[in-house]
Amino acid sequence: MKKLIPLLLGAVLLSNTVACQNSSEPIGKTDSPANQSSATSGKLKSQAAAVPAGTSFDTILQQDLSTGKNRNNDRFTLRVKGGNKVLKDAVIQGHLEDVVKAARGKKAKLHLVFDDIKLANGAAAPLDVTLVNTQVETKTKGKFVQNAGIILAGAVAGKFLGDKANFKQGAVAGGGAAAAYVLSSPGGEVVLKKGTNVKLKLKKPLDTSP
Fold first, then answer.
1. How many CB atoms lie under 10 A from the CB of residue 164?
2. Residues 196, 61: contact at Cβ < 8 Å?
3. What's the pLDDT tens digit per position in 153-175?
4. Residue 137: predicted pLDDT
5. First-last CA distance in the chain
6. Whole-angstrom Cα distance, residue 40 to residue 15?
């Protein structure tokens, strides 16, 4: 009988040990730290991949534009400079619409339409921006006269001519229309020289993930 008592005590201790181990296990299903870390990382990556609406940035025109020489649908290119580090060195493609050459009783004007942007990381997206300002010049009788102010006659509806094949599926849904910004001159041809600074502001967030 004395030999049985130690055996019984050992069995009781072993049973208590197993019960304690089982009670330390979580009752419900929860995400592991690795899963939580992955979800947080994905969320941060998504946030980092968007440039918010309202972001302003400067661009440099890469060629001369003139109502005297250019025609409808002629393309132009802008390169983003400085400012936002995500947008730096991005290339913007645009085109001209409703180009009107100066004539007697007719003011020169052109519409600037900004189609799409290609970032330094290779990502491409349609561009929805507002033209904040640019410096327009007037060419009269072979001479350039820099206007004291900026000539902006407002925005009108334009066509989207970007290459949709470069964009993610659905990125240009309903994107057949674009804002066209009107530049006009009270006298002479409207001229934007190569190297002109064109300041833009995002109307919608820009996805920068490649």
1. 14
2. yes
3. 678 889 988 877 776 655 554 55
4. 75
5. 79
6. 41
